[in-house]
């Protein structure tokens, strides 16, 4: 397969974007492998007795899974061989660096590395065509130029589309490693890539036999129990050989609790939860005590449409919080003109400022009754309106936030009240008094200034 050395990163971006939009974490995944294969952002909680196993890393943390138990492989690139040239300055042969790499690919997560190509000095620098051989199905390799000339530096991007299906028998070696070669056309030297797909969780190697978590009747594997023969249950606590008849006591969460929480039937000591009329609604848990719909609603949607219902608790999507996931972490709407959240006079809650009295307004910048409101903006009003005062030499830098409108006299100023305050200032430069109003628009501070100033010894100016 031949690939020209062009900027093909757009293809890579489209492929990854498509995966993100089409894939969601399989919350009902029965094991770690099934979870991480359901999407590139999906992680698995390896903590014993975890209520939530498969979600994004943030989702697992919010559900109480400690970060040390969050398994979220992202792949890796390791340089195996990178010999530098021992040739004299005038080289006669092509040089590739590095010469050999090992790549572990999490499907949907791209890996990249720089490749330096030094051309023979007696050959003109020309556009290269790269030959790629023995690339596994579903793996895409693209190139983009970083520098031109000699040596040539390019970026190599490698991404796998997905893990092979269980029914794919076309190649017994389903996840690698495979050896692929990248060769500049017309030359004999190649870069060797050893590619392995990360479709299986490494935690399966840490198998704890006869684990106490599994009642001594099973092996702990990625936080779950793999029960030995005849034992079943989340903690391998039930011996099926001991059941000669249905035993409803095993199906109660407590001595007087209803069988299967009143949501299922007891079959040989185990609850079989009843089906709901809505196929998307399900009961779950050892005693059918959990559901994926019995959570707070917001705008007629469970968890406000911004999370998943897990056993009566909303697990919110990224950037959302609250009991019903109705509260956004977004703070842009709370940013005041001084670049402080809520002007430093309130709290930004769910994207809305909760102001401390007497401050008001969308960003807590309105305070007509505050004694310091007029003083706070007086120097900027003076330099913007009259080109005078302490800030006249830095007016554009420090007072650009203020929009000024001039009127003839004090009587022409806007009516005060509400969010508009009437102010006066005695200019320290010439002891003249001028009047102005302050108000707040949706985007900036607004001042209307009376052009006529009253001076003690010179009357009106």
Automatic annotation (TrEMBL):
Calcium as UniProt keyword: yes
Membrane topology: Single-pass type I membrane protein
Domain of life: Eukaryota
Assigned GO CC terms: cell surface; focal adhesion; integrin complex
Domain Integrin beta subunit tail positions: 374-456
SUPFAM superfamilies noted in UniProt: EGF/Laminin (SSF57196), Integrin beta tail domain (SSF69687), Integrin domains (SSF69179), Plexin repeat (SSF103575)
Keywords annotated in UniProt: Calcium, Cell adhesion, Disulfide bond, EGF-like domain, Glycoprotein, Integrin, Magnesium, Membrane, Metal-binding, Repeat, Signal, Transmembrane, Transmembrane helix
Protein known as: Integrin beta-1
Species the sequence originates in: Lates calcarifer
Originating gene: LOC108889547
């Amino acid at each position: 397969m031949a690939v020209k050395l062009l900027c093909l990163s757009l293809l890579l971006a489209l492929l990854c974007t498509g995966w993100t939009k089409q894939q969601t974490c399989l919350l009902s995944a029965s094991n770690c492998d099934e979870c991480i294969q359901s999407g590139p952002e999906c992680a698995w909680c390896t903590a014993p007795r975890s209520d939530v196993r498969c979600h994004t890393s943030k989702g697992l943390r919010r559900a109480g899974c400690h970060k040390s138990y969050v398994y979220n492989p992202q792949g890796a690139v390791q340089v195996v061989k990178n010999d530098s040239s021992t040739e004299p300055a005038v080289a006669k042969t092509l040089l590739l660096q590095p010469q050999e790499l090992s790549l572990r690919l999490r499907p949907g997560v791209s890996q990249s590395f720089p490749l330096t190509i030094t051309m023979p000095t007696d050959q003109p620098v020309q556009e290269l065509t790269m030959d790629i051989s023995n690339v596994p199905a579903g793996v895409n390799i693209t190139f983009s130029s970083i520098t031109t000339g000699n040596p040539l530096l390019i970026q190599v991007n490698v991404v796998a589309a997905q893990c092979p299906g269980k029914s794919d028998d076309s190649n017994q070696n389903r996840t690698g490693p495979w050896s692929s070669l990248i060769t500049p056309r017309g030359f004999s030297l190649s870069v060797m890539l050893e590619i392995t797909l990360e479709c299986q969780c490494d935690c399966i190697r840490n198998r704890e036999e006869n684990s106490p978590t599994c009642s001594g009747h099973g092996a702990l594997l990625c936080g779950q129990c793999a029960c030995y023969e005849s034992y079943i249950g989340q903690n391998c606590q039930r011996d099926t050989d001991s059941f000669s008849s249905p035993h409803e006591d095993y199906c109660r969460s407590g001595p007087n609790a209803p069988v299967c929480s009143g949501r299922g039937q007891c079959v040989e000591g185990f609850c079989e939860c009843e089906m709901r009329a809505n196929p998307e609604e399900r009961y779950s848990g050892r005693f059918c005590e959990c559901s994926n719909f019995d959570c707070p609603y917001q705008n007629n949607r469970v968890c406000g449409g911004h999370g998943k219902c897990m056993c009566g608790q909303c697990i919110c999507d990224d950037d959302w919080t609250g009991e019903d996931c109705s509260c956004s972490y977004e703070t842009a709407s709370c940013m005041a003109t001084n670049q402080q959240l809520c002007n430093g006079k309130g709290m930004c809650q769910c994207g809305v400022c909760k102001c401390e009295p007497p401050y008001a307004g969308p960003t807590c910048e309105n305070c007509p009754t505050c004694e310091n409101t007029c003083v706070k903006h007086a120097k900027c009003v003076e330099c913007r309106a009259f080109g005078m005062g302490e800030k006249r030499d830095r007016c554009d830098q420090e007072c650009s936030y203020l929009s000024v409108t001039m009127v003839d006299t004090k009587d022409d100023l806007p009516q005060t009240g509400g969010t508009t305050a009437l102010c006066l200032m005695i200019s320290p430069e010439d002891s003249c008094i001028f009047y102005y109003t302050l108000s707040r628009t949706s985007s900036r501070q607004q001042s209307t200034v009376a052009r006529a100033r009253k001076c003690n010894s010179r009357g009106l100016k």
